[in-house]
Write a structure and sequence with these properties.
0% strand, 4 helices
């Protein structure tokens, strides 16, 4: 996992990589919901969607500038 992170930092830069890493706890929780049956509150869903959309927005802007 660390090698992928270092490769991402080299290709995308530290700011974009760090911002995208913020989405990992939410995505892990979503997978835990499917596997373990855990439930998220509506506020947690909204916050997670905002984080994921923000990460995708940063990636799309980075691709346009490149």
């Amino acid at each position: 996992g660390h090698m992928f992170m270092y490769a991402a930092v080299q290709r995308l830069g530290a700011a974009v990589t760090t911002s995208c890493q913020a989405a990992m706890p939410f995505l892990t929780t979503v997978v835990a919901g499917f596997v373990l049956g855990e439930k998220l509150t509506p506020a947690q869903w909204m916050a997670g969607v905002v984080v994921v959309v923000g990460a995708l927005l940063l990636l799309s802007i980075k691709n346009r500038l490149a």
